[in-house]
Amino acid sequence: MTDAQSTTVELPDFDVLADLLVEEGALTLSPSELHGLLAGQVAAGARFDPAGLLQRIQELFDIEPFGSDVTRRTVMQTYMAILQQFQAPDFSFELLLPDEDQPLSIRAEALGVWCSGFLSGFGMQERKGPGGLSVEGQETLRDLAQIVQISTDADAEGEEDEANLMEVQEYVRMAALLIFSECNEPDAREEDQTGSTPPTLH
On the CB side of 120, how many CA atoms lie within 13 Å of its CA? Predict the structure, then answer.
């Protein structure tokens, strides 16, 4: 494994990515939706080079090409972190959601947006191989479709509300890992890790 491949790629900060998208004029695109969509595509077997990734995002969200090198690098960092976390043996995959100091209603809405993005990304990616998802995998997708509608009262801030949201969030995280494991053969995952060098972030 090369140094580039052994280096851990961290997810960008939610607020940093949100500010960059606003500066680019992508006012309707939230970091959660972008992360969910890329995660859905990767879970379904998609892999991107930098140019292909940026073009894909531009087409899917009907936005102008990113003008800032910082934005382009941050988006690529998001994709690389997703791929690396999915492949990690310690199930370290994370969802890109607002910080925990944000109101519960904002975070719940973002979780629903993430699920919507994931389902969209998964659905638009042509999956390789003859087999479909297992019964468990299909049920998992249906569960995510239900979670898209998640909401909480604006004044819901109690410990029980917090615990419930954390439980749903953890379910979504593990659901994404399950879908990835079903759609990405172990041999293919090994190939990703050892057979090709990921793009370098500058």
Answer: 17
Residues 6 or more apart in contact with residue 118 via CB below 8 angstroms: 36, 37, 39, 40, 43, 144, 176
Closest CA to 85 of 192, 202, 158, 200: 192
pTM for the full predicted model: 0.86
Taking the C-alpha atoms of residue 103 and residue 97, their distance in angstroms, rounded to an integer, is 12
Q: Is the pLDDT assigned to residue 76 strictly greater than 90?
A: yes
| Nearest of 83, 70, 60, 57 to residue 4 by alpha carbon | 83
pLDDT of residue 195: 38
Span 80-114, pLDDT tens digits: 999 999 999 888 999 999 998 999 999 999 999 99
The domains found in the chain, sorted by start residue, are: 3-194 (1.20.120.740)
